[in-house]
Amino acid sequence: MNIISLACAALLLSASASIARGAPDEAIQTVSVAGVRDPDLKTYKAFMAGMDAFDSHRALAPRADLRFLLTARNAGVKLDGLTMHISADDLDVPVVVSADGGFVMPRNRQAVEKDAEVILNKKKGQLRWRPDVHSPNVPVDARRLGDLRLECEVLWAVSKLEMPSFQRVFINAFDGPCNTKAVHVNYVAPKQLSAVVLEAGNRREKLDAEWIENNGQMYVPPLHDRSWPDDTLVKFEFAQ
Fold it and tell me: Domain count of the chain?
């Protein structure tokens, strides 16, 4: 779900959103869980920030729910047997992870108070996470622009807590990555793309080729362009 690239500063976010979308660097820490060293860690407060952002920007996708999605960084990593826990002193809360790597992060006041970590039983760097927002009745070969905007807001809320302050200040100067053309928010395509078409009512426009990247594996939707309403369909045309 998402890699955000800057012309003037290097920044890696996740995304799935999959957002989806790339993941920010994990905290440097060594913890042993179920016999696996260096599990992927993220603070529970960071995920809470993402959930709060989802609630704050809910109008972008009023009929969607928030889940997160874990995906493998390479083909050799499997999701079989994946477990997730919210962990702190005297606290262990399991989080159910579905077969596709999706999960809903529960709200837990005690986890916030105890500065809990979210721990996986996989080695660090094997998985990436992204927010996953899908409104109902969207065609399988398309995404809804408001859903992508909301994924971006969630991803930014989580990622800005774990990045150097100079990067955060730089991006905030543009009102965040989701509201400016100066920051490219890239989304992973479901299959190799030949074109992306925006459709809103009678308006139809093909995305310029420069916004399809990595040999058709990624695309950059116009999140910042409010002339395209949230109900705009981002329709995929796949390479043969």
Answer: 1
* pLDDT, position 41: 65
Q: What is the pLDDT of residue 4?
A: 44
Residue 161: its pLDDT value, please? Answer: 84
Domain that holds residue 230: 3-238
**How far apart (Å, rounded) are the C-alpha atoms in residues 16 and 33?**
25
Residue 227 phi/psi, 5-degree rounding, is -70, -20
Q: Please report how the helices 44-56 and 145-159 are oriented relative to each other, as an axis angle in degrees rounded to 10.
A: 140
Could you tell me if 186 and 218 are in contact, meaning their C-beta atoms sit under 8 angstroms apart?
Answer: yes
pLDDT given for residue 12 in this prediction? 33
Q: Please choose, from the candidates 165, 157, 171, 162, the residue with its C-alpha nearest in 3D space to the C-alpha of residue 9.
A: 171
pTM assigned to the model = 0.82
- DSSP classification of residue 109: H
Q: What burial letters (b/e) apply to 208-224, b meaning 16+ CB within 10 Å?
A: eeeebbeebebbbbbbb
Q: Quote the tokens at residue 210.
A: 């420069």
Spans of the chain, pLDDT less than 50: 1-37
Strand arrangement of the beta sheet that strand 66-72 belongs to? 102-103, 66-72, 127-133
Q: Residue 40 in contact with residue 23, Cβ under 8 Å? A: no
State the first-to-last Cα distance of the chain, in angstroms, to the nearest integer: 23
**Residue 32 tokens, joined:** 């042993």
Structure confidence at residue 7 (pLDDT): 32
pLDDT score, position 13: 36
Tokens encoding 71? 């995906």
